[in-house]
Amino acid sequence: MTDHLFTFICEFEGGTYASQVQALNAHHALMEWGKSLRHSRPMGDRAEIIADAAFDEDEPPTPLDGLDNVWCWTTEIDGRLLLANIVRTLGRSNVHP
C-alpha cells in the first residue's frame, strides 16, 4: 500500500502551525507528525510533550462529518487545548494544471 501525504494544521497557545507527513492512514500520520515535532520543535519545549501525546493516542483521529479525507485530533497540554486538523493532501506529482 502507498503512503499518502497528510497536512496538519495545528492551533496551540495562540499559534497556528502547518506541516506535512507521509503515512498509510490518518492514525499513522498522527504518529509520523509526532516524530517530526521532535525534530523540528515548532512549539519549542512543548513539542516533545505534544509528540508524546500523539504517540500515546490509542484512538485514530476523528473523521469530520460531511467531509472526505479530513480528520480532527485534540489533546490537552498543561491545561491548554491543542487542535489539529488533518487533511489527506494531493502531492505535487498528483496535481494537474
Explain what this protein looks like in three dimensions.
By secondary structure, the chain is of the alpha+beta class. It has one domain (4-94). The protein is built from two helices and five strands, in the order E-E-H-H-E-E-E. Strands 2-1-5-4-3 form a five-stranded antiparallel β-sheet. A hairpin with a 2-residue loop joins strand 1 (4-12) and strand 2. The two termini are 26 Å apart.
Briefly, what is this?
With 97 residues, the chain is an alpha+beta fold.
Question: What's the topology here?
Answer:
Layout: E1 4-12, E2 15-23, H1 26-40, H2 46-56, E3 62-63, E4 70-77, E5 80-89
Antiparallel strand pairs: 1-2, 1-5, 3-4, 4-5
Helix pairs in contact: 1-2
Level of helix content? 25-40%
Envelope shape: globular
Q: What letter string, H or E per element, gives the SSE order?
A: EEHHEEE
Count of DSSP H/I helices:
2
Give a count of the beta strands, DSSP E runs of length 2 or more: 5
Report on the biggest sheet.
5 strands, antiparallel
Q: Structural class, please?
A: alpha+beta
Portion in strands: 35-45%
Strand line-up in the sheet with most strands: 2-1-5-4-3
User: What's the end-to-end separation, in Å?
Assistant: 26 Å
Q: Are there runs of 5+ residues with pLDDT below 50, and where?
A: none
The overall pLDDT, averaged over residues, is 90
User: Radius of gyration from the CA trace?
Assistant: 13 Å
- Provide the number of structural domains: 1
